[in-house]
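Inverse folding, one chain.
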């Protein structure tokens, strides 16, 4: 698979497993991975993720775990047991939660000779802005809050963060190299913003330093999904 396709993750933000299987069948081999989030996991469940992994598909399990440390660590170990390529938690869960999760997953993978998944933490949702974080009592500037959470994520043993492409350069400056940054809220030049606020095009995000980009509705709702993917890869090829 070409290098640009490796960076592209298609979000399977769908109601059912049959719909998801159809999209995967249509796009498998032309994108780097598929994201299974709360909607599909609730509707399709563990069996769908298992089947996708068994078929050789890379799965980003986007459940944004956020609970007491033991609960999140245990859930993350189950994600690793499923063989997912990547999963995430909410950095707002704190350092203890992330450290316990990182330690538990790495211990499980080492003892079971399982490939360790990429572990990411969400800093601030890309649908949020300064007003949203103020509503929950965070008075710190949005950008400063994101950098604080990125540093905490790295210190806690995680591999990277989920963040808007707008913050990637400052995150790189704060935590250094060797830290994965995945960017959701990507809207190709042919798409609308929908409910996202801090967005970029695929080319802008990769140029800013994003390692992976997630695209959902612009692909899923396209009349021809394969051509939509080709258009996105074409944007990336122009970097």
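Residues assigned per position:
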């Amino acid at each position: 698979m070409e290098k640009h396709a490796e960076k592209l993750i298609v979000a399977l933000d769908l109601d059912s497993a049959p719909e998801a299987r159809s999209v995967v069948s249509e796009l498998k081999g032309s994108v780097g991975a598929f994201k299974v989030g709360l909607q599909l996991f609730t509707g399709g469940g563990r069996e769908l993720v298992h089947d996708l992994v068994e078929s050789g598909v890379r799965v980003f399990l986007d459940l944004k775990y956020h609970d007491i440390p033991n609960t999140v660590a245990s859930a993350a170990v189950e994600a690793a047991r499923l063989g997912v390529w990547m999963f995430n938690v909410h950095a707002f869960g704190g350092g203890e939660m992330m450290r316990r999760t990182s330690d538990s997953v790495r211990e499980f993978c080492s003892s079971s000779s399982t490939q360790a998944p990429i572990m990411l933490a969400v800093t601030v949702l890309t649908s949020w802005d300064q007003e949203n974080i103020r509503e929950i009592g965070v008075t710190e500037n949005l950008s400063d809050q994101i950098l604080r959470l990125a540093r905490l994520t790295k210190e806690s043993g995680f591999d990277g963060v989920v963040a808007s492409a707008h913050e990637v350069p400052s995150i790189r400056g704060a935590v250094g190299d060797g830290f994965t940054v995945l960017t959701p809220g990507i809207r190709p030049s042919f798409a609308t913003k929908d409910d996202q606020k801090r967005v970029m095009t695929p080319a802008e995000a990769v140029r800013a330093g994003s390692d992976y980009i997630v695209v959902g509705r612009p692909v899923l709702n396209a009349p021809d999904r394969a051509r939509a993917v080709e258009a996105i890869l074409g944007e990336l090829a122009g970097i």
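Residues 95-112 form the longest helix (18 residues). The chain has a mean pLDDT of 92.
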